[in-house]
Amino acid sequence: MECHGTVSLVVLVLVLLRWPASSSAWAPVSRTITVDSEGRGDFRSIQSAVNLVPDGNREWVRIHVRAGRYREKVTIPKEKGYILLEGEGHSSTEIYFDDHAHGSTDGLMRRGADAMLTYETATFSVYANDFVARDIAFTNTHNGVNKSHVTQALAALVDGDRIAFHHCAFNGFEDTLCDNTDRHYFRECFIKGGVDFIFGYARSIYDGCTLVSNIPPRYGRRRAGWVTAHARRHAGDPGGFVFKGGELRGTGRQYLGRAWNKYATVVYYHVNMSSVVVPKGWAPWYAGNDTNDVLFAEVGCTGPGSDMARRVPWEKHLSEAEVKKFVDMSFIDDGWLSKQP
To answer: What residues does the Pectinesterase catalytic domain cover (predicted)?
Structure first.
């Protein structure tokens, strides 16, 4: 008996030591609202559950979405913070819709992520601070089959501060995930797209995420997509996409990113890259010939796509201190992650 107690204590200590620091404390959930498409919950639609959360909310409210496919556009408005949106696994709980942008894609991109026809296409939008999503998929089905005349069609728009996604999926083709502003954390998420499928101004860490290109192989060697389009405008602006671990795979060919603005910042750290990666790696886009301030970097990546021998000459080579600045959780976290449920 004594021996078993000692062993249990040792196991508990080991588990606590291995547990991520950001998960060592949990905020309490004040209530749970259940959504069930079959009518066996509080609501049939997710937006109805969101609407029930009072404006100015300061206590965590769980919206549990039972397995099923929910065809609706869902918005978390700025006034409704502290929502935990929880599915039953991103392969079984999905929010989907098929809106898409109209007009010139180039013109819309030049106007920015807040151009009306761009952001209004999102299947899911969060404008509130302090939001968490777990085990749920966000999908825009517009470019799902016919990719001969694709246009912007967002699966999700993330536009608040202190936001985390755990084990979620984002499915689209062009502009899948608008990671627009402030600080975000994506843990072990699945993100699928073909053109600029992660874009915006935000300061985010993608921890152990799977990035999947769905560029059709028939596009040929002259047509490729871009995984990222970061839009940092000025030297003093906080911002950057950091990919820690995980993998990049799929079909077709992909650049690791292109510079939406001249201070665009993207770092791949210990990512496994398949041969889907274009040897040049990066494209200047709106930075044009002025790439001195663009910070695109790769550190310790593996796989056939990680060969840097033919990369663009303006890719940055970071010092150990610079690498630490980006990959340390302090890049986005000043304690807010440990205060989430």
So the answer is: 33-333
